[in-house]
Every structure is written in C-alpha cells, then in structure tokens.
Amino acid sequence: xxxxxxxxxxxxxxxxxxxxxxxxxxxxxxxxxxxxxxxxxxxxxxxxxxxxxxxxxxxxxxxxxxxxxxxxxxxxxxxxxxxxxxxxxxxxxxxxxxxxxxxxxxxxxxxxxxxxxxxxxxxxxxxxxxxxxxxxxxxxxxxxxxxxxxxxxxxxxxxxxxxxxxxxxxxxxxxxxxxxxxxxxxxxxxxxxxxxxxxxxxxxxxxxxxxxxxxxxxxxxxxxxxxxxxxxxxxxxxxxxxxxxxxxxxxxx
Length: 253
Ligand SMILES: [Zn+2]
What we know:
Blueprint: H1 8-19, E1 23-25, H2 29-35, E2 46-49, E3 55-58, H3 60-66, H4 76-86, E4 101-104, H5 111-123, E5 125-127, H6 131-142, H7 146-152, H8 174-177, E6 182-187, E7 205-208, H9 210-216, H10 218-225, E8 237-241, H11 245-252
Parallel strand pairs: 2-4, 6-8
Antiparallel strand pairs: 1-5, 2-3, 6-7
Helix pairs in contact: 5-6, 6-7, 9-10
This protein binds zinc ion.
C-alpha cells in the first residue's frame, strides 16, 4: 500500500509518522531499482573520496536529479567546448569520452551520514537513529535536501504538500544533456520536424542516461551489459520502431 499509493498528501503524512520510528522518506518502485545502481563500478562516473581514503562510486545524473549540491562546480570551459561540438552534429553529442571525476570530501563530512544520505538519494528513503540523525540533519541542511531535513526534524507536512516524490525526470531536461551517454531515437521514415535544444539531429529522439535506463528496463540492461553492443550504433543510439522516445521514457520512469 505504501509503495502503490499515488496520493502526495497521504504519502507525506505516512512519511511523517514513520519518521518517529527512524524511517525517513518514502519507498518507491523506481527508487528500489535505482538503489541497485549505487556502488556500481561499471556505470559510475564520479567517486567521493572519504577522509579514510576509501571511495564511494556515484552517478552524476542521479545526483543532478536528486541532490545537485553534491556535484562539483561546473567547469565552464568544458561546457563551452561541448556546446561548440553540438553545433555540427547531434550525433556527436553522445560521443564524449566520459572520464570519471573524483571529489575529495572535507574531513568534516561524516562518512556514515554521507552513506545514509546516498541511500536516500538513490532509493528515496533511509533508516537512522540516535546521533546519526543529528549528523544527517547537518549534512541534509548543507546539501539543501529540504524534504529529508523536514523529515529528520519531525516537522508535520504542510497541507497539499508534494514534498515526497522520487522523480528523475529533471535529468531528461537541458540540465541532464551534458551527462547523457545514450540517445533513444524513434525509427521513422516520415519527414519529421524535430527540434532539440541540445543538438541539431532531426529524428525524434531523447538524450538519456544508461544508468537510469539499465535500472528501469531489463531489455536495455541486457543490451548494455551483454555482447549485443552491435545493436547500439557507434554513436550510442538505440532505435525504436514506431514508439516516440518520450513515451518509452515515460514507461520506464
Ligand atoms: Zn538532441
């Protein structure tokens, strides 16, 4: 019932009540799938280096959608180069060599609190108690994760609050284009006048992200992981027959 309810008000109040029992956030089907990607070395594109030298693998697109404060400051010079390359061909948009970033965290960042925060970012909920809750409050405040901070402070949700939702659709917008590593293209022979704010490719398409698609769709996960790489063009494009890419993503998310 908890996972299947679509009432944001009911969800907010259920989460509020559960916060008194050390459960913060709201489980969701998508969150359960995305959580499986946490720590995945193959598809991660960033690592947090902790004060003890250990590293935690993360995915920039998930942070972008759920907690952008954890992303390093944008490199304006790199962005300029990317925008320049997009002008010549949309297919070049995904032909980027994605190097793994390493972010060394301040020694003041509590490791246990960070790992719990990542649980929340990837799954939509976490369990904590005692002193860890106090550390999480500090971290959630510094990272501007207000829905979690509200739960950690046991604040009663406002009327018609939409504070609890596991939504990654922000990653499909302009903000997520630079992190896109796959294009979903609708296979069409008709003359389409598709306009994209990121590239000049004229076929209907969406700039997507492998980690989210892999977690959401068994077929694509098999396609990305198995020896079926020949099904994906050298330009990292997956073609779908007669299915608008937005519709495909809507089903996945
Ligand atoms: Zn495009």
